[in-house]
Design brief:
The protein is built from three helices and two strands. By secondary structure, the protein is mostly helical.
């Protein structure tokens, strides 16, 4: 369990950029946009109460292949 807890703690520190999940997602979107990624995202229809959303990640190399 010590190894699991250490790995989990490291993962959380490296993946959560803010305590609030919405703020963390916004920071990740900004960070990825700065490195050439595209991220179309929008609220999922009829899931406003659950704060659902749809996101697509498009890497720079994928944009080159498609466009």
């Amino acid at each position: 369990m010590d190894v699991y807890n250490a790995v989990h703690c490291k993962d959380v520190k490296e993946t959560l950029l803010a305590l609030d999940i919405d703020d963390s997602m916004e920071l990740w979107l900004e960070k990825l946009c700065e490195t050439g990624w595209s991220m179309p995202h929008e609220p999922t229809p009829y899931e406003e109460a659950c704060r659902g959303f749809t996101i697509a990640l498009i890497s720079p190399w994928q944009k080159k292949v498609c466009c």
